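User: Write out your own:

AI:
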Amino acid sequence: MAEIVMLFVRLVEEGAGQQLVTCSKNGDTDVTLRILYCGICHSDLHCIKNEWTNTVYPVLPGHEIVGVITEVGSKVNKFKVGDKAGVGCMVNSCRSCPSCKQESENYCGGLILTYNSIDTDGTMTYGGYSDTIVVQEHFVVRFPESMPLDKGAPLLCAGITVYSPMKYFGLSEPGKHLGVVGLGGLGHVAVKFGKAFGMKVTVISTSPSKQKEATESLGADAFLVSRDSEQLKAAMGTMDGIINTVSAVHDIAPLIYLLKPHGKMIMVGAPDKPLQLHVFPLIMGGRILAGSCIGGMKDTQEMIDFAAKHNVAADIELVRIDYVNKAMERLAKGDVRYRFVIDIANTLIAA
């Protein structure tokens, strides 16, 4: 059960007013997490504004949740009270379909998301802009002691979203050339993982002003301005793979030409309108265009452990809970480097 404890929330959607949400009890296989930090994902903004046309109001976002376990059920084996842990984008699945059996719960047809989803008992799930959450232990991630909780929170969405396809599609091998399209919440983490894997990393962006931060702050090896046709021409056929993080409509054909024969471009951004593509760039190079959605629980734990070992964490701006509406306005304008994280423990007062 992904519910929250006794809390008044002012929804961002105009006219929604205040909503009291109550928490279910901790079950035999559940853990209760006192939330310390919660990242603000662009998906939260999409959902609040109903841009994907599936929002059920009142909605309480947040799926980059980190805190301390305060209660465990009688059948819980992996956690104890006091453990540092996190909850990402999903809180339940059928656990019996082929995807679940292959530890890809993220592709389960019965996947239940952390918020804006109907749980198995018919109740709505609510997310991490709150002080407590109760979740089945299978969907909880243990946080290593060396991982800072505030900077680690965004990895539960942004991190696994780029890590999983890099591993699955063979874009984690040292010496390979990785392109990262878009330098935002997802993109900057993809750069860090790419370098941790020992890859050559090129950032591709519409903003020339991001070159310095990409190469000097994040360690990218090269930078391309996607609107500069000469730069793109010079880089044609040089990349083994591309992680495309852009969530706005954009022309992907010039990006596909950057791939070597049999190269792969993986879409992890989610534009709200269809993209257009002629198939010839794919056919003539045997190139692959694929998509990826977060990752399973095994991959998520592996990602957090890898990130802790290699000092990979998100660059964040820590904000108070009463700053969330302003943060959403700034996020819509791309005015964040690179992830807002809400300081729940120090700024949220439960009703």
